[in-house]
């Protein structure tokens, strides 16, 4: 049944060096060829195909495109931007990273040329690309809410229902432990998937205000009772054996956490909507079995947060490098204003299980081969009273590494919740 939880049917179908990477665009003063760096896998295949189509139609403004794994990209783009060697079009997650780009004059104001594009997009998503009323980034791919994926066959064999609240989740952990199945997989080696647990728990317990105080830079904001309780509940889950005991060696770049669910080794995984399209590519037999289900994050009894609120990434965003040549910048602006979210691009995204941040998609979704997942995810976004940007992207960039490392220590039990808060309070930027 689709709604708060859903069972899926068959689908057809993030400070290193450049390490010798050439800068063919952006900051290369001798180049007039625009370039773009993208990530690999899932929807990014559609993005690369879109650039191929653009290049065929616009031989005077052809883009060179390079793809990277998520974590490698996050390391390289910061170095490239800071050194003036960024690609013409910069993929970002907005939040504190975009604010840093704007304050450093690394990206251009694209308010006027993208006005028509922004009229077609979901307002709550578009707003993430604005700084002080001006637009410096526009969404360029799918909305990315975080949801809970599960293996329905394992639940059937265990004779239990998919959990909808905290107590039911703890019960499911106990049942799967007894059956020798990992209740949850977790890509702890990548660290950032741990943020999904921290952010959802904080929001469910204390509502959006708890983390908004962190983003606003309020003193001791990390000591909010909701954040402390979220860390306590994380450690309760770890102690209960909720996660694969080898989670510290599992990485997300290769979709390893989701594959544990597809392979029947773990019952559930908390991950972004991008996992669906990756599974279509990489685990076709499991997807054809109809055993993949999705649901929202469980509610917390007595919590102040709305159970319909979501966390994740409203989308990835394109910004135009201020260090690109005038010709490169114009090509980037033309691509965004004249080409982005064309019909073929939108159809390609939907066909691969990804939802563009466009308004009025209901009819297009209904016409897809397997609309259930798309309809579920689209409903999550359009009905959410709050869409919390991923913590590592929302905080000041100077805090990201400390956040990931300290949260990792909460998960491994070497830090108490209070020590986590104390350490993070010490990282709050001061004016």
Automatic annotation (TrEMBL):
Signal sequence, renumbered to the chain: 1-25
Listed SUPFAM superfamilies: Periplasmic binding protein-like II (SSF53850)
Superkingdom of origin: Bacteria
Keyword annotations from UniProtKB, A to Z: Signal
InterPro entries named among the record's database cross-references: Bact_solute-bd_prot1, SBP
Record's protein name: Sugar ABC transporter substrate-binding protein
Organism: Nesterenkonia jeotgali
């Amino acid at each position: 049944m689709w709604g708060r939880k859903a069972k899926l049917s068959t689908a057809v179908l993030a400070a290193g060096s450049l390490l010798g990477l050439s800068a063919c665009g952006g900051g290369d003063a001798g180049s007039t060829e625009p370039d773009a760096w993208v990530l690999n896998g899932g929807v990014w295949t559609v993005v690369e195909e879109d650039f191929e189509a653009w290049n065929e139609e616009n031989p005077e403004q052809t883009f060179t495109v390079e793809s990277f794994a998520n974590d490698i990209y996050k390391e390289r783009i910061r170095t490239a931007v800071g050194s003036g060697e960024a690609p013409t079009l910069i993929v970002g997650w907005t939040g504190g990273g975009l604010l840093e780009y704007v304050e450093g004059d690394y990206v251009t104001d694209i308010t006027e040329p993208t006005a028509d594009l922004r009229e077609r997009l979901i307002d709550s998503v578009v707003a993430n690309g604005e700084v002080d009323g001006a637009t410096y980034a526009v969404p360029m791919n799918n909305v990315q809410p975080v949801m809970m994926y599960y293996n329905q066959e394992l639940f059937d064999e265990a004779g239990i229902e998919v959990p909808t609240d905290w107590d039911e989740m703890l019960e499911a952990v106990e049942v799967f432990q007894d059956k020798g199945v990992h209740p949850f997989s977790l890509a702890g080696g990548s660290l950032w998937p741990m943020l999904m647990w921290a952010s959802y728990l904080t929001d469910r317990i204390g509502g959006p205000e708890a983390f908004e105080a962190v983003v606003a830079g309020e003193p001791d904001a990390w000591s909010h009772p909701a954040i402390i309780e979220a860390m306590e509940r994380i450690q309760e889950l770890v102690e209960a054996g909720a996660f694969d005991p080898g989670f510290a060696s599992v990485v997300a770049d290769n979709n390893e956490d989701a594959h544990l669910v597809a392979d029947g080794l773990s019952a559930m995984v908390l991950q972004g909507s991008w996992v669906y399209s990756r599974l279509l590519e990489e685990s076709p037999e499991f997807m054809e079995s109809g055993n993949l289900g999705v649901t929202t994050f469980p509610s917390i009894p007595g919590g102040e947060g709305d159970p319909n609120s979501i966390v994740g990434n409203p989308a990835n965003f394109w910004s135009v490098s201020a260090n690109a040549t005038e010709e490169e910048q114009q090509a980037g602006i033309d691509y965004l204003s004249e080409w982005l979210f064309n019909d073929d691009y939108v159809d390609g995204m939907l066909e691969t299980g990804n939802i563009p941040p466009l308004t009025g998609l209901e009819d297009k979704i209904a016409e897809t081969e397997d609309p259930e997942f798309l309809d579920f995810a689209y409903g999550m976004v359009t009905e959410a009273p709050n869409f919390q940007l991923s913590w590592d992207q929302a905080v000041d960039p100077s805090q990201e590494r400390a956040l990931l490392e300290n949260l990792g220590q909460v998960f491994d039990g070497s830090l108490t919740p209070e020590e986590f808060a104390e350490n993070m309070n010490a990282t709050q930027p001061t004016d």
